[in-house]
Automatic annotation (TrEMBL):
SUPFAM superfamilies: alpha/beta knot (SSF75217). It is an enzyme of class 2 (transferase). InterPro entries: Alpha/beta_knot_MTases (IPR029028), SpoU_MeTrfase (IPR001537), TrmL (IPR016914), tRNA_m1G_MTases_N (IPR029026). Residues 7-120 form the tRNA/rRNA methyltransferase SpoU type domain. Gene3D superfamilies: 3.40.1280.10. The keyword Transferase applies. GO terms for biological process: wobble position ribose methylation. Its EC number is 2.1.1.207. This is tRNA (Cytidine(34)-2'-O)-methyltransferase.
Length: 132
């Protein structure tokens, strides 16, 4: 995450990036984000090979996100709200799957909330991080 967090959007996305959709979602900081778009997961992994600093968030893990040791350059993966992360990816990286503990009575958190929870824990673990 060194310096500033970067948003990597990997296609296919489960949401629209049209100007209208961005404006409607209230993302008034969109133009200030450091963001990249990738055609596919394979394309992303060619440039960013999986290491122990790649973490996959899923409801299928028993390891809470706050038990992970997030380094200053880590990658947090979140799947689509309707499908999650592909099972093959989770099965191939079992030691790097994390979950956000929730009540069994709750269905799930939305994607933006989930990202915010885990990202801020990663930032908390790296106190040198500055918001500038």
């Amino acid at each position: 995450m060194g310096g500033n967090a970067i948003l990597h959007l990997i296609h296919p996305l489960g949401f629209s990036l049209s100007e209208k959709a961005i404006r409607r979602s209230g993302l008034d900081y969109w133009q200030h984000l450091h963001k990249y778009e990738w055609a596919s997961l394979q394309d992303f992994w060619e440039r960013n090979p999986i290491t122990t600093q790649h973490f996959f968030l899923t409801t299928k893990s028993k390891t809470p996100y706050y038990q992970a040791c997030f380094g200053d350059e880590c990658f947090l993966y979140f799947g689509r709200e309707d499908a999650g992360i592909d099972e093959m990816i989770l099965d191939s990286n079992p030691n790097q799957t994390l979950t956000i503990p929730m009540s069994s009575k709750a269905r799930s958190l939305n994607l933006a909330t989930s990202v915010g929870i885990v990202l801020y824990e990663a930032l908390r673990q790296n106190p040198w991080y500055r918001f500038d």
